[in-house]
Design brief:
The complex is a heterodimer.
Chain A (H helix, E strand, L loop, with lengths): L9 E11 L2 E12 L3 E5 L6 H8 L7 E6 L2 E3 L4 H6 L2 E4 L11 H8 L4 E2 L2 E2 L1 H15 L14 H14 L4 E5 L7 H14 L4 E5 L3 H7 L2 E6 L2 E7 L5 H9 L17 E11 L5 E11 L3 E5 L6 H8 L7 E6 L2 E2 L5 H6 L2 E4 L3 H5 L6 H5 L10 E2 L2 E2 L1 H14 L16 H14 L4 E5 L7 H16 L3 E6 L2 H7 L2 E6 L2 E7 L5 H8 L9
Helix pairs in contact in A: 3-4, 3-5, 4-5, 7-8, 14-15
Chain B lengths: L2 H29 L4 H10 L5 H26 L7 H18 L5 H30 L3 H21 L5 H6 L27 H18 L1 H11 L1 H6 L4 H28 L10 H11 L4 H24 L4 H22 L2 H20 L1
The chains are: A alpha/beta, B mainly alpha.
C-alpha cells in the first residue's frame, strides 16, 4: 500500500467476525467514526475490544467483514499497512524494546530517518522534541525503556505513535497510568487534537468516556450491545449496559482503627536501576487493620519501595520493621516467612509464572510447606484440591486449574495472585496497582476482598495511581513524590483535588 | 471441528513434512551425484535389519539419553549447558582413575564406585560454570564452552601421561589410551552377539528419576519455576541462584555418568574420541525430545539410528558420512518446523474453515 498523507475523514468497519480456538472474540461488529469524532469503546475484560482494535491495526486478520477508510475498502496484511493508512495505536501492553533507549525505540518505526548505512538519530530526536513540545508530553529520549515506570512507558508509546505520523488514533486505556491532572490534560489535549484527527479509545473509566467521547459503543461477549451518543446517557446507564448488572464499588466505611503499628519504615533510601536514589528518606507507618493508600505518579519510587520491602531490591539506608522485625536487606524468603503478602505491579511476569498451570502458581511460595509436600515429594491431590477450592472461592473463570496461568485474562490473573496471597494468611499485605486495567466487575471483587482483610485486622499498604480507588479504600492517604512522603492525609480531609496537587509535588495549596 | 478432520489434518501435515524432507535431501544427494533411492533405503532400513545393527543403535542411544536428561534439567532451570562434552570427559577420567587405582575390588563394590566417581567428576565440572553464573553472572555459554577445551586437553594429557597403558610404552606404539580396565567394572552384555549392555537399564532408571525430580518433588518444582520465570521465582522466595548451581551440577553429573557408562559398557578402557560429539548431540536430543524424559528416550533412539545410518551409507553406497549429517540436519529442521505447525491451533482453524467451504461447494454442485 502506498503511504499517503490524506486526512482520514471516515473509518468504518462492517460485519467483523474473529474466532479464536473455542472463542468467538468478535461477532459481527460494526463501527463508524466520522471526521473529528471521538468514539469510546467500552466493555468488560474479554469483551473483544482489544481484539477488534488489533484487527484494525493489522495484527490480526478478521475471519469475516471489512474495513473502510474514506469509503474505500482496505485490507491490512500487517501493522505496516495500517500505519501506512494513517492508523496509530497505543496498546495496553506496551510494545517497546526494553533494552533500547526511548530514542532508539522511536527510531524503530521512523522510516524517514533510515538510510542504508546510517540511522539519522538527530532527525528522530528533533521529531520527538517537536511532538513533545506540541503536546506537552515530556520524555527523556536517552533513558532506557527498562528503567522507566509503566506510566512513563505509556507516555513514550503516545509520543512514538504521534511521531510516526498517525492521523487516526486508537488508544487502549490511555489514562490508566496518569494522575487526575495529567488525565485532565490528556483529555483536553485529545479534544484539541480532534481538529486534526479522529480517535477511538478503549476505557473502563466512565467519567473519561463521558468527558471525552462523542459516541459510545458497548461490547459484551464479542457483540455490540449498545451504541449511541455519549451525552444522552449517564455513567450509570453505561456501566449497567457494560456488565449487564449494576455495579457498586465498595467503600471503606469502617471506623478508623487504632491498632498497633504493623509496618514501620524510617529514613528509607533505595537506589533505582539508573543509580539515583529513587526512595530518599521515606517514613511511613501502617497499623494493623488499616489501609494506607500510597498515592503518586508512577516513577516516584513506588516500585522501588515495594521491591525493597519484599527483599527484591537492596536497601541503602534506613529501616523497615514488620511487627518490630527488621526486613531491610533480607531475602525474599525471609520476608515471606515474616508474614508479608505482596501483589506485585507486574502481574503477568512477576506475580505468576506464565507458563505454569494455575494450580502450580498457587503453590509458588509454598512448595516446601507441609500442606503441599511431604519429604520433598509434592502432594498432588492436595495441590489439586487447594486449587479447585481457590478457583471456586475467588470466582476465577477458566475451564479448569490446569490451564497455563499466562493464558488467563488480566482480571483472572489478578484473582489468581490475590487468591494465593490471601489464602496464605499474611499478617500484612502490599498491593501495587491491584486493579490497573481491570474492568469494574473485577475491581469490585478485589476491593471487597481487600476491605474484608482489613476488617480481619491485616494492615494493607495500597499503592495506586487511581485516586478513586485510594479514596474508596484508604483510612489514610500518603502521597509520594520523588521518593518521599510529602504529606499524609486523613480519609476525611482527603479529596482528589488535594491529592492530585500533592502528587504533582506542590505542597502548598495556595500556590496553585 | 470433527475428530476425523483433526486426524486427517495431522496426518497430511506429517506426510507433507516427510515429503519435504525427502525432497530436500534428494536434491542434495543428486547434486553430489549419489544414488538417491539406494542411499535412502540404506539410511532408514539397514540399521534396523538385524540385531547387531539395532544393538549399535541402542548403545549410541544410551549416552545420548543420559546426557540429554541432564541437559533438560539445566535447560528447564534456566541455564544452558553446552559443556556436556567436557563434563563427560571428566566423568570418564574419574571412573577410569577409580578402576585403575582399585583393581582388586569385587564387582559389587568397584562398579558402583566407578559410576559414582564418574558422576562426581561431571558434577564438579558442572559446578564451575554454575557458581560462576550464580555469583558473578558469567555467561554459561562462555564458561561451559571454554571448560570443554580445558577438559579435552586434560583428557589427552592423562591418556598420554599418568594413565597411559604401560604396554604401549613397552611396545613403543604409544597409542594414547589407558590399560584395559579390570573386568570388575564391566557392564554385562545383554544379548549375545551384540554390544548391548546393562547401561540400558541405567539410562531408563535415570529417565524415571529425572521425571520424578522435575514433576513430583518440590525441588523440581522450584527449579522449573526458576527456569520458566526467574522474576516470578524470585518473587516467590525461591533462591534462584542456588538452584542454578544445583541444576548445573545435576546436568554435569549426568554427563559424567554417561562417560562412565560408556567406558564400562562399550570401550572398557579410556581412549581418545569417546565423547565424539555426544555432548553436543545431547543438546539437540534434549530439545528434540521436548525436554521431557518420555520424549528424550525415543529422540535418543532416533539420533542413534541416524549416527549408525551415516556410518553405513559411507560403507555401502559411498556417500560420505558428512553428507548424511547434512541430511540429518534437514530432517531435524523439518521435524521442528512440523511440530510448530501442528502446535498452531489458528492455522488448523483456518484450514478447517476453508475445508468446510470446499465441501459445502461440492455438495451444492
Amino acid at each position: 500500500m502506498e503511504p499517503n498523507t490524506r486526512k482520514i475523514t471516515s473509518l468504518r468497519v462492517e460485519h467483523i467476525t474473529k474466532r479464536f480456538p473455542g472463542v468467538l472474540a468478535c461477532n459481527d461488529i460494526a463501527l463508524s467514526v466520522a471526521e473529528g469524532e471521538v468514539l469510546a469503546l467500552v466493555g468488560e475484560n474479554g469483551a473483544g475490544k482489544t481484539t477488534l482494535m488489533n484487527i484494525l491495526m493489522g495484527l490480526y486478520r478478521p475471519d469475516e467483514g471489512r474495513i473502510l477508510i474514506n469509503g474505500e475498502e482496505v485490507v491490512f496484511r500487517s501493522p505496516n499497512d495500517a500505519f501506512a493508512a494513517g492508523l496509530g495505536m497505543v496498546h495496553q501492553q506496551y510494545m517497546l524494546v526494553a533494552n533500547m533507549t526511548v530514542l532508539e525505540n522511536i527510531a524503530l518505526g521512523f522510516t524517514q530517518a533510515w538510510s542504508p548505512l546510517k540511522l539519522n538519530l538527530d532527525m528522530v530526536r528533533a521529531r520527538i522534541d517537536e511532538v513533545a513540545a506540541k503536546y506537552g508530553l515530556a520524555v527523556d529520549p536517552d533513558a532506557f525503556v527498562w528503567q522507566l515506570s509503566v506510566g512513563e512507558q505509556q507516555r513514550v508509546e503516545l509520543v512514538k505513535t504521534l511521531c510516526l505520523g498517525a492521523r487516526f488514533l486508537i488508544l487502549d486505556e490511555p489514562t490508566s497510568a496518569l494522575t487526575p491532572q495529567e488525565t485532565d490534560e490528556l483529555i483536553l489535549l485529545l479534544k484539541r487534537m480532534t481538529s486534526e484527527l479522529s480517535i477511538v479509545f478503549i476505557s473502563h473509566k466512565l467519567h473519561e468516556v463521558k468527558n471525552l467521547s462523542d459516541k459510545v459503543t458497548i461490547l459484551r461477549h464479542g457483540s455490540v450491545v449498545f451504541e449511541g451518543s455519549t451525552a444522552d446517557h449517564s455513567s450509570g446507564d453505561i456501566a449497567a449496559l457494560m456488565t449487564g448488572r449494576e455495579i457498586h464499588l465498595p467503600r471503606n466505611e469502617a471506623p478508623t482503627c487504632e491498632g498497633n503499628p504493623a509496618l514501620e519504615i524510617r529514613g528509607l533510601k533505595i537506589r533505582s536501576d539508573r543509580g539515583f536514589l529513587a526512595v530518599d528518606g521515606l517514613d511511613l507507618s501502617v497499623c494493623a487493620g488499616e489501609i494506607v493508600g500510597l498515592a503518586g505518579v508512577s516513577g516516584n519510587g513506588q516500585r522501588e519501595l515495594a521491591e525493597a520491602i519484599n527483599g527484591l531490591r537492596k536497601v541503602e539506608g534506613g529501616e523497615i520493621l514488620l511487627f518490630g522485625q527488621e526486613l531491610a536487606n533480607r531475602s525474599p524468603r525471609a520476608v515471606i516467612d515474616a508474614g508479608m503478602g505482596y501483589i506485585p505491579e507486574e502481574r503477568n511476569t512477576e506475580g505468576i509464572v506464565p507458563s505454569f498451570s494455575m494450580k502450580e502458581n498457587f503453590i509458588l511460595k509454598d512448595a516446601d510447606e507441609a500442606q503441599f509436600s511431604a519429604r520433598s515429594f509434592l502432594r498432588l491431590k492436595e495441590i489439586d484440591r487447594n486449587a479447585e477450592a481457590l478457583r471456586t472461592e475467588f470466582d476465577i473463570r477458566s475451564p479448569d486449574t490446569k490451564v497455563a496461568a499466562g493464558s488467563l485474562s488480566g482480571g483472572n490473573i489478578q484473582k489468581v495472585i490475590l487468591a494465593r496471597e490471601i489464602s496464605r494468611k499474611p499478617r500484612f499485605l502490599i498491593a501495587v496497582y491491584p486493579t490497573r486495567g481491570l474492568d469494574m466487575g473485577a475491581a469490585e471483587f478485589i476491593h471487597k476482598r481487600l476491605l474484608e482483610k482489613r476488617l480481619e485486622g491485616i494492615g494493607i499498604l495500597l499503592i495506586s495511581e487511581e485516586l478513586e480507588e485510594i479514596l474508596d479504600l484508604s483510612d489514610r492517604v500518603a502521597v509520594i513524590f520523588k521518593g518521599r512522603i510529602i504529606d499524609t492525609l486523613d480519609r476525611r480531609s482527603a479529596d482528589s483535588r488535594k491529592i492530585g496537587i500533592l502528587m504533582a509535588g506542590v505542597h502548598n495549596d495556595e500556590a496553585v | 471441528m470433527t475428530k476425523q478432520f483433526k486426524a486427517l489434518y495431522k496426518t497430511v501435515v506429517i506426510l507433507l513434512a516427510a515429503a519435504a524432507a525427502m525432497l530436500l535431501g534428494a536434491l542434495i544427494l543428486w547434486t553430489i551425484g549419489a544414488d538417491v533411492t539406494k542411499t535412502y533405503s540404506v539410511i532408514i532400513l539397514e540399521p534396523l535389519k538385524n540385531k547387531i545393527e539395532i544393538g549399535e543403535v541402542l548403545i549410541r542411544a544410551i549416552p545420548l539419553t543420559i546426557i540429554a536428561l541432564g541437559i533438560s534439567v539445566a535447560y528447564r532451570s534456566g541455564i544452558i549447558n553446552i559443556g556436556a562434552e567436557g563434563q563427560m570427559a571428566m566423568g570418564i577420567l574419574a571412573a577410569t582413575a577409580v578402576a585403575l587405582a582399585l583393581p582388586g575390588l569385587p564387582k559389587y563394590a568397584l562398579l558402583p564406585l566407578a559410576m559414582i566417581a564418574g558422576t562426581l567428576g561431571g558434577a564438579a565440572w558442572g559446578f564451575i560454570p554454575g557458581i560462576l553464573k550464580a555469583k558473578l553472572h558469567v555467561s554459561e555459554l562462555l564458561s561451559t564452552v571454554m571448560l570443554n577445551y580445558i577438559a579435552a586437553q586434560f583428557y589427552t594429557f592423562c591418556l598420554r601421561g599418568p594413565m597411559l597403558d604401560p604396554a604401549e610404552i613397552t611396545m613403543g606404539s604409544g597409542t594414547p589410551q589407558s590399560m584395559r580396565l579390570t573386568k570388575a567394572i564391566w557392564l554385562d552384555r545383554l544379548v549375545p552377539g551384540t554390544r548391548i549392555h546393562t547401561g540400558v537399564y541405567i539410562a531408563l532408571a535415570m529417565a524415571f528419576i529425572i521425571w520424578l525430580l522435575l514433576w513430583r518433588t518440590s525441588w523440581g518444582y522450584k527449579m522449573r519455576a526458576a527456569g520458566a520465570s526467574e522474576r516470578a521465582a524470585r518473587y516467590g522466595g525461591i533462591g534462584v541462584a542456588g538452584y542454578l548451581v544445583v541444576a548445573m551440577m545435576i546436568s554435569g553429573a549426568f554427563a559424567g555418568l554417561a562417560g562412565a557408562v560408556e567406558i564400562a559398557g562399550v570401550h572398557r578402557r579410556a581412549i581418545e574420541g569417546i565423547t565424539g560429539g555426544y555432548g553436543f548431540s545431547g543438546i539437540v536430543v534434549a530439545l528434540f525430545g521436548g525436554l521431557h524424559p518420555a520424549g528424550i528416550i525415543p529422540a535418543s533412539f532416533f539420533f542413534g539410528l541416524l549416527i549408525v545410518g551415516a556410518d553405513m551409507t559411507q560403507r555401502m553406497v559411498g556417500v560420505p558420512a558428512n553428507m548424511v549429517l547434512v541430511l540429518q540436519g534437514i530432517i531435524i529442521l523439518v521435524i521442528v518446523a512440523t511440530r510448530m505447525v501442528l502446535a498452531n491451533p489458528y492455522l488448523m482453524e483456518r484450514v478447517w474453515r476453508r475445508y468446510q467451504k470446499l465441501t459445502r461447494r461440492d455438495k451444492e454442485a
